[in-house]
Design brief:
single chain, 5-stranded mixed β-sheet, 4-stranded parallel β-sheet, 42% helix
Length: 243
């Protein structure tokens, strides 16, 4: 397996990205295509013992920075590292792409270069993030801040597959994140989504509230990215504060 890695994506790029790529190649036996300015990638790679590892450098002269509007940035930076890395998958030169840079840029690159799976309208960010509930994933965590009900249903389908394949849960339970467990609670999008979820064939158990997340009341909890991003960052900050 060859993984294309955005060498310039992340708060501590390229140092930590290159370091992680070397560790990944050594510990998991994968090939790495490290994408970024060739000279900088070579300088960082020289700091590590990579003998016997399949790591190639693919030059990209530009990269995204936090705060740029993703669509505008990608139009202006046609040689951005995340874009070049994603194109390696499209061209069959890599099996997967990994980027720790701005979420919007990663999502926009995937959407622009790879498109979506048939029947799925948008890429979605999500997964398990809370140690108290390792079998609970939340989607979306920040890539889609304004969503339609059918898009939330798409996220639930993606989340259910994720829970089955990655967490080995045969029949994952699915819930909508709302301000009350009763049907009819929540904003307009949540209210309109409820009947769609109930008719979807998913293992839908209704609404859950914020305090149900750490209790693991559902395996797949769905919300828009505006709500999800606030939840995940609050949880991260709370953990750090308690520690």
């Amino acid at each position: 397996m060859r993984i294309a890695v955005d060498g310039m994506g992340g708060d501590y790029a390229p140092e930590e990205i290159v370091k992680g790529s070397v560790l990944g190649a050594r510990e998991h036996g994968v090939a790495i295509a490290l994408v970024g300015p060739a000279e900088r990638m070579e300088q960082e790679l020289a700091k590590h013992d990579h003998s016997g590892l399949d790591i190639e450098i693919v030059h990209a002269g530009e990269w995204l920075v936090e705060g740029e509007h993703p669509a505008f940035a990608l139009r202006q930076k046609r040689n951005a590292s995340i874009l070049v890395a994603t194109k390696l998958v499209k061209q069959g030169k890599a099996d997967a792409v990994l980027g720790a840079g701005p979420t919007g840029g990663v999502m926009a690159s995937a959407l622009y270069v790879l498109g979506t799976i048939e029947g799925i309208s948008r890429p979605v960010v999500g997964g398990a993030f809370l140690g108290f509930a390792p079998n609970t994933i939340v989607m979306d965590l920040g890539s889609n801040v304004d969503c339609q009900p059918y898009q939330l249903l798409d996220f639930a389908i993606v989340g259910s597959v994720y829970a089955k394949k990655m967490l080995n849960i045969p029949e994952p339970t699915v819930a909508l994140l709302s301000i009350g467990a009763e049907e009819g609670k929540g904003n307009e999008v949540v209210q309109q989504s409820f009947p769609l979820f109930r008719q979807s064939g998913l293992n839908f158990i209704g609404n859950v509230e914020g305090y149900d997340i750490p209790y693991g009341r559902a395996n797949v909890i769905i919300c828009d990215g505006f709500v999800g991003n606030i939840v995940v960052k609050f949880a991260e900050a709370l953990g750090r504060t308690i520690a």
